[in-house]
Amino acid sequence: MTYTAPLADMRFALREVAGLHQVASLPGYEHATDDTIDAVLEEAAKLSGNGLAPLNREGDKVGAKLENGVVRTAPGFASIYKEFVDGGWNSLPFDPEFGGQGMPWLLAATVQEMWQAANMGFGLVLLLNQGAIDAIHHHGSAEQKATFLPRMISGEWTGTMNLTEPQAGSDLAQLKCRAVKTGDHYLITGQKIFITYGEHDMAENIVHLVLARTPDAPPGVRGISLFIVPKLLVGADGKPGRRNDLRCVSLEHKLGIHASPTCVMSFGDDGGAEGYLVGEQGRGLSYMFTMMNNARLSVGIQGLAIAERAYQQAAAFAKSRVQSKDDGSAKPEPVAIIHHADVRRMLMTMRAQIEAMRALGYYTAAGIDGALKHPDKEIARKTQDRVDLLIPIVKAWFTDLGNEIASIGVQVHGGMGFIEETGAAQHLRDARILPIYEGTNGIQARDLVGRKIAKDGGETMFALVSEMRALADEMKAAVGDDMAAIRTALAAGADALEQATMWVAEAAKAELVAALAGSTPFLRLAGTALGGWLLAKGALAAQAKLAGRDGDPRFLEAKIVTARFYVEVILPPALAQLGPLKAAGRTVFALEEAQF
Amino acid sequence: MTYTAPLADMRFALREVAGLHQVASLPGYEHATDDTIDAVLEEAAKLSGNGLAPLNREGDKVGAKLENGVVRTAPGFASIYKEFVDGGWNSLPFDPEFGGQGMPWLLAATVQEMWQAANMGFGLVLLLNQGAIDAIHHHGSAEQKATFLPRMISGEWTGTMNLTEPQAGSDLAQLKCRAVKTGDHYLITGQKIFITYGEHDMAENIVHLVLARTPDAPPGVRGISLFIVPKLLVGADGKPGRRNDLRCVSLEHKLGIHASPTCVMSFGDDGGAEGYLVGEQGRGLSYMFTMMNNARLSVGIQGLAIAERAYQQAAAFAKSRVQSKDDGSAKPEPVAIIHHADVRRMLMTMRAQIEAMRALGYYTAAGIDGALKHPDKEIARKTQDRVDLLIPIVKAWFTDLGNEIASIGVQVHGGMGFIEETGAAQHLRDARILPIYEGTNGIQARDLVGRKIAKDGGETMFALVSEMRALADEMKAAVGDDMAAIRTALAAGADALEQATMWVAEAAKAELVAALAGSTPFLRLAGTALGGWLLAKGALAAQAKLAGRDGDPRFLEAKIVTARFYVEVILPPALAQLGPLKAAGRTVFALEEAQF
Fold first, then answer.
1. Residues of B121-155 as b/e, b for ≥16 C-beta within 10 angstroms?
2. pTM for the structure as a whole
3. Closest among A152, A97, A147 to A127, alpha carbons compared
4. Chain B 519-538, CB below 8 Å of chain A: which residues?
5. Domain ranges across chain A
6. Mean pLDDT across B501-525
């Protein structure tokens, strides 16, 4: 149950697929030198493997506990969090003006994978803080930024997102929390649920970002405003002082991520919690969208991370568990189960999809950097469009795969996988939240089809299809069976993705409901095809490096094998979603509600 | 979180798909009249819905507990078990000579679905007892049968299967438990793990069936013998007396089925537990195979059952949870989420696969009856071959689907699905054992390809393919779009299944490892195609009944819609496993162990 950051594969994905060098050469990233990046990766690998990973099982077992209004995090969490703050880990991608290190989001995503793989229950506090920093950074006043950002970026204070209410989950238009202006601030009253790290004992202060309605606000989403509501009010000296009128009234009893306190928060039981309007009234929800790409990328990375963790554990078990003879040998002695074909198929299925996710996840993170920093405005805009298109795919496809792969991890363990002490089941329980939070995967599919494809009639996706085809053309020059098989599959993937996108773009105009009925199969097809494209890109790079004797040949050969397995075994059923995505609309509403 | 047995759909599957009338007309089943069967179904529906289902959540929460060597089952379990015994539920399919009711296995499977859907943690005691009864019935001496069967069939005593040891899971050849002859009995020593209901407080006595080795036995499977080892030794009066030298030393802490005690059993700590050889020495493992078909069918039925439970809960939630506007309407008001296309797609995905499983599960159970009772020996033999072929498909495909569907059930609930109080997560946790126990699903796929297909070169499967084609021909006369779409898909399914079987049969001879590498994708293809066939059969029957105004038209129309959804949305990706199942062998062993 250890975790070792897969540095070799991470570096490969960074350099050969995501274009780390291009990112590091963008203006503003001059300090992201090879040496610095390597040092960050090495140190993060140590902290994740030696510091965070060993706390994961105990964090699950003990969980966070609410005692007299105080949330006690699991053993070791507070002290490892202090290491994070002291080591400056929290500040990696943020604005140097407020104490950040201004490193590329691509690097931050890579390091994020390590934290989340090592300990997702812990890692959530980092994600929520990141989202809150983003929101204040983009929309807060100069004073708000000066007051809150340096402490949040250092991690001395942590942020939360207070969105959900019992009647307002996916549909935030229904929210009821109220904010009434009183002098220079607002008084916030109401209850919020599912507030991750809404209360804990690891930081000096907690900065809640709360969506609420002002009294005269119009109904629906345009009546929602965003407020900063600190747990401890910040004095003129910038230090936390008097306790604000808010508290955690209970913790949810959840399937997984037990170490992460999921709070029911009550604001204003004693008259109203002091809150400060962020930006303009009525724009709260649109401000939330600002941080959504980063947040959804991070959740996708969690899916990748938990899959990697499950894979490492399953591979180690499969090498050590001895059971039954080898079918490929005449010897009667039992062998390690990794020698059995179906176990090997399971491990390859985990591994190939993990590498595909890593490629697409890092590629998308690099796009965030490009959109932010590229000096050519037109390129930056197109890159932003591409990121916007990819984000729902990364969020939903990665998190579905995270669950599937964690479940395979249990299966590889056989009976031991069902026993909690083994730890394989924890990954499955932890992973199960990922397709739900930060917008359910159904909502991601809806965003992909109803917004992203509909917006430009599929143009951004067609540009990706062109790149897939360009790579397939480039691969014609590559020698060998493997490359031929990968190239053929890549071309098939491009064709299927193009046809699916054309259909969806048309349907989104003509019969939206039919497009939405096919949106989840479409997302699956798109994710799998795009993942295959980037694995093909990696395989071609690996072959070139092999030819140039540049790098570990065993590692590079494995990249090619894994890509071929992916395109031959994983890709075809996903491409066969082309029929279903078109057909679903015909029958999905053919029954009446009462027939269910 | 209630459960209502889906009687209408069960009756339809029994009568229109599985051929209940043909089964009931077999010699020996004369007493299985329509009235009797209906009465059994109605009463079982009441007991499962009103008695068992309400105990399910508490059973999960409290679980079974070991206190001073005694296992206390969850609240209400002992008293509901007494209702089972008093009501004669346990004895349904067993030999009247020993107090059974001699009803068809088809009926027993249907009722089993209800018990397992209502409360899987409870239902397991019934399954284990069934397996032990089967083993003693087939291989025990007249005296053993007289001593044990009547009490086990009534349920006053329950049976267990003591197979697994820490080093011997899937590979029973490695087991070490010892049995030494002393006078007229054997002394058993050793430790067994994962013993379901190995100790509990619901029955007067527990009859352990234990696999062990005699001192001079050859190594491997031919040295394994089967022993009856009762918890309380049975006196000359037939009553339980002195405590035998065996005990439960601990309970496993599991992901799910918390109500079912999973025991570590220790035999012979004080010198040896008294045991009685069943049949001949060295034939223990082959005796186990006798009961395997029934046991694996039952586990498959558990997969169906948990899927049905999850579906009912998800559908109820989707009808009551109001969130976001209806995309197909101009009204801005939020609606129940069942009106959203992706939620509807999820519900249809659950429902269609459940109906396909029910059809194939009952069809297989009817085959067990035909093989046992058909007066024409040749038909009986062919029916047995068919059952043997279908069993690994039923076990593995149903239990994989059980997990997938339980996970969709969580997803439909959104954030509430992740909260344990909702109950949706329990189904997912409970379902996760199903692909593991009673032979992992990898072992089922191996059995299907390496034994069942290899044995006759695919002949039994080709006979099924012929029946699929015959139905497709018959459907040519059926009117309407739906029937045309279903017929086309049915023909495609038959083609794909035939091609896949031909390839697998050939590969099993020529390169077994490649066949095994593709065995899991093959099983998925086969299960999905066969399920589609029986849904098509049901759709055709539904259309005929509609034409004849025979039955509830809404129900019958829904059968046709659901079949069409299945063949258009569920079937295509499964048929696209044809490529992967052939290709997997190329790459699965291309990496060395050290590269994982």
1. bbbbbbbbbbbbbbbbbebbeeebbebbbbbbbbb
2. 0.98
3. A152
4. 519-521
5. 457-587
6. 97
